[in-house]
Amino acid sequence: MDENLPVAVIGAGPIGLAAAAHLLERGLVPMIFEAGPSAGAAIEQWRHIRLFSPWRFNLDAAAVRLLEPTGWESPRLTALPYGGELVDNYLAPLAATPEIAARLQTGSKVVAVTRKGMDKTHVRDRDATPFTVRVEHTSGEVRDYTVSAVIDASGTWSTRNPLGTSGLPAIGEDRAAVRISSPLPDVSGRDRGSFAGRRVLVVGAGHSAANTLINLADLAKEEPETGILWAVRGASAEKVYGGGDADGLPARGQLGARLRRLVESGRIELHTSFGISSFTDSEHGLTVTSGDGRALVTDVVVPCTGFRPDLDMLRELRLNLDPAVEAPTELGPLIDPEFHSCGTVPPHGAKVLAHPEKDFYIVGMKSYGRAPTFLLATGYEQVRSVAAALAGDQVAADTVHLELPETGVCSSDAGTSCDVPAASSATEEIEEAGGCCGTPEPVLIGIPTGLAHGRSGG
Ligand SMILES: Cc1cc2nc3c(=O)[nH]c(=O)nc-3n(C[C@H](O)[C@H](O)[C@H](O)COP(=O)(O)OP(=O)(O)OC[C@H]3O[C@@H](n4cnc5c(N)ncnc54)[C@H](O)[C@@H]3O)c2cc1C
């Protein structure tokens, strides 16, 4: 690759910024494009959620080396930050360092990546040809940038899974968009006005759904007109309740038990085996119909159905993706949620993340495709390795090392996936007590998903 050209980094989330820090250490020049108004724009959307991993696993080493000379003070490494704290105390100062600030363009959405002057079918000199990155700026201007390599760290937050069954949007879902909230609204805080006193349907059976439901129940205490409906595809919500009062992780169990009580008391109206087939909007509200003809009427829908990667912008690149998970082919089987929980994913780097398109990498949350189990610590090791590979240091690129506690940073127990931990109001003031994952309480996780060792695990 042409080392005189910059390396494009798509996304200024934690992994994109860490990639930039590692590139700088390697003497390469990053050019960072961020679609949102500031770094950490996706996390900004869930700033009211507490992370389930303590600070020490949420900081990248190269990023810290950039921050330290600025007088930045490291947070207490054992504390569990909120999303907002991750932005305010880490990502924003990192984006403001002179090295990053000079190379970061916010309000700049990458819409396509290709090889300069050639489409996907052309092979001659392909590996040596620079990339073109097409960017839409908020000013309305669209520009093509020429770069030597591309690191796609754009996450999956902007592409939630559709609400319909079979992986497709339900009929009428697009037209109902105004009644569908973001995936993790702050129902009792910032977004309260959209939920107070209204009928709310929560769809999904993961941590996100569970925490939103509990927060809605808190809201309903103050705003009794608030109606809470909950639709799950499965025949029961047992796996969301977990072990209840007998749960091995007491705080997690309490949360599950609380949700069960809310359902049993009728405060939350649960609808099982409810696969959504259509949405019809009218002056009376949004009618949500299941495949077997049942209908629910609501004012707002909260979609807690997970995320998938946006692959459209990569259409002109030669990718090698796992057919099920949409992660790089070699990574897919390591993270397939059918078989793995987050603690069981081995560290990996450039080699596993490589595509037939030389010098192009998908990293971070997006590298996990549809699997929900990504951890920041894993991503930091990914980008350390990728930067080494781009700089030609194959030995460093191939030496992947990641010291996660045996049980993973997401849980001291299997039985959880890592995508969405407890919301603020659903947890007590929590801090990691002694040693990594030494305490199970960082409940972060709150609710078991049944992913003991993946969906099909025992
Ligand atoms: C609620 C929640 C809690 C989590 N808690 C933890 C935790 O405790 N510990 C842990 O290790 N992991 C946790 N994760 C998982 C994961 O670490 C986070 O999702 C993390 O934000 C992923 O970082 P990222 O940089 O890959 O992606 P993101 O943080 O999503 O950043 C991607 C960035 O790219 C930008 N972008 C998107 N598309 C484009 C485009 N086309 N052009 C330019 N920019 C674009 C976005 O605006 C965003 O700023 C959590 C995830 C969620 C959703």
From TrEMBL:
Annotated Gene3D superfamilies: FAD/NAD(P)-binding domain
InterPro entries to which the protein is assigned, alphabetical: Auxin_biosynth/cation_transpt, FAD/NAD-bd_sf
GO molecular function: flavin adenine dinucleotide binding; monooxygenase activity
SUPFAM superfamilies according to UniProt: FAD/NAD(P)-binding domain
UniProt keywords, alphabetically: Oxidoreductase
PANTHER family in alphabetical order: FLAVIN-BINDING MONOOXYGENASE-LIKE PROTEIN (AFU_ORTHOLOGUE AFUA_4G09220), FLAVIN-CONTAINING MONOOXYGENASE
Name by which UniProt lists this protein: Flavoprotein
Organism: Paenarthrobacter nitroguajacolicus (Arthrobacter nitroguajacolicus)
